[in-house]
Amino acid sequence: MMSDKAIQVNMADYPCVGVNEPLTRALGLMFRHKCDVLPVTDGGSFVGMLKESSLSGALSAGAAEGMRVWEMTDLAVPRLGEEMGLEEVLKVIRSHPQETMLPIVSKEGMLKGMVRLRDVMAHAMEVARPPRVGGMATPFGVYLHCGSAGAGSNSGQLMLTGVFLALMVGVAWVLSFLLSWLIEGPIGVPLVPILLGSPVLVGGAGMQAFPLLIWLLPVVIFLILLKFSRLSQFHAAEHMVVHTLEHFEPLTEEVVGRMNRVHPRCGSNLMVPLLLLYTAGVLWALPSKWYSIALFVLVLATGRNLGAVAQAWFTTRPPERRHIEKAIQAAKDLVENYLWTGRKGVPVWLRVWNMGILQVLIGAGLAYGAYYFLLALAQSAI
Q1: Taking Cα atoms as reference points, which of 15, 9, 47, 7 lies closest to residue 31?
Q2: Could you tell me which residues come within 8 angstroms of residue 309 by beta carbon, excluding any fewer than 6 positions away?
Q3: CB-CB contact of 364 with 165 (8 Å)
Q4: What is the mean predicted confidence (pLDDT) over 122-144?
Q5: Residue 84, number of CB atoms within 10 A of its CB
Q6: Ordered DSSP codes for 16-49
Q7: Among 144, 221, 247, 295, which has the minimal tally of Cβ within 10 Å of its Cβ?
Q8: Which of helix, strand or coil describes residue 74?
Q9: Local structure of residue 110 (DSSP, 8 states)
Q10: With 70 as the cut, is the pLDDT of residue 29 above it?
């Protein structure tokens, strides 16, 4: 609607009825769509409103048969103009407190949309929020989504985030090889072959722990690199602003700044235990598959706790003011996008794309593809 389109009801999702249609059809539409008011039109022009509150005293058993919509239409409903701003809308609402829904009508009298009282008030008080918010951190800021809408970092920045993460994984492996090479001589254990996954037998009391520790080394180094990157601060800011949205708190620096940087729905709660199990090779090292299954279930059951520890110590770091400011702006943009476009039905593929994970995977894939391409060129040149 108007200059502030975020509070308009999408007419594609809201029914209206013709003035000369049977009243029974109008009642069927109200029942199907669970609405207590129905806009009445005549050739697209707004006529009035059919209200549930006016039906109860006028209809007895069977009285609706043969009646037309115009007979029960309220013609004195206030109208909102297309160019009205939020303050003007609030003024109309204050003067008509009994109305729960108002029509948006063009200068020519055509019905353009509908506005719900609760939407206007939620928007005016800045508590209109998507039902569920997810997101991720990038080196450039925060990306937030609600499935049907997104805001913050753009697709290019999400792809560069995938490249950035792939580079950090590469650096973690290089540092792991260097560290293993430096200490394998003094301790007399072939750490580099173990890191490469070679079937090296390690003897001696207590020496069986070496494969496990070496396989975990790249993960630990990666988490340390992540901890001291700007990504961890944007990750914290993302969690804090999502907490603010979910608690219907004002999106201000003071409020966001006191929120917890650990979030129960962070992907770390799933990725950390799975990464530990895969990297350590525990599922293949145990003597029985039943032990493996039991350990797998145990780790997944405690994944939230492991993820919370990882978030607190590695994947997040107390953000600075600039990180919080960017997160707040992303949250405000998400609310606007959701209210204006996010409540409309969108295809499943678009919902998946809006999650942002595909863009990150594309970036990581391009980085690894470039690495293997350069490696092949180097091998062919030798």
Answers
A1: 15
A2: none
A3: yes
A4: 85
A5: 19
A6: -EETTSBHHHHHHHHHHHT-SEEEEEETTEEEEE
A7: 247
A8: strand
A9: B
A10: yes
- Of 350, 210, 382, which Cα lies nearest the Cα of 280? 210
Domain covering 5-124 assigned CATH 3.10.580.10 in the classification:
yes
The string of DSSP letters for 357-375 reads: HHHHHHHHHHHHHHHHHHH
Backbone Cα Rg of the chain:
30
The pLDDT, as a whole number, for residue 56 is 65
For tokens 């809308």, the residue is 89
Q: Which position has the token pair 């006016």?
A: 54
- pLDDT at position 241 is 96
Residue 122 has pLDDT above 80, yes or no: no
Indicate the DSSP class of residue 12: G
CA nearest 256: which of 212, 321, 347?
Answer: 321
Dist. CA 233–CA 256, nearest whole Å: 13
pLDDT at 233: 95
Closest to 323 measured CA to CA, from 380, 256, 276, 272: 256
In contact, 277 and 296? CB cutoff 8 Å? yes
22-32 in b/e form (b: 16+ CB < 10 A) is bbeebbebbee
Strands 141-145 and 101-105: unpaired
- Where exactly are the structural domains of the chain? 5-124, 134-261+316-381
- What distance in Å separates the CA atoms of residue 306 and residue 301, rounded to the nearest whole number? 10
Give the relative orientation of helices 268-280 and 289-301 as an angle to the nearest 10 degrees.
150
Residue 359, token pair as written in the block:
């863009």
Query: How many other C-beta atoms are found inside a 10 Å radius of the C-beta of residue 57?
Result: 7
**pLDDT for position 360:** 94
Q: Is the entire prediction scored with pTM above 0.85? A: no
* Cα(37)–Cα(26) distance, integer angstroms: 10
Structure-block tokens of residue 277: 């199990």
Q: Which of 55-64, 89-98, 113-122 has the highest mean pLDDT?
A: 89-98
Q: In what order do the strands lie in the sheet with 134-138?
A: 134-138, 141-145, 150-152
Whether 38 and 54 have beta carbons less than 8 Å apart is answered as: no
Region of poorest pLDDT, from 24-28, 43-47, 132-136, 213-217: 213-217
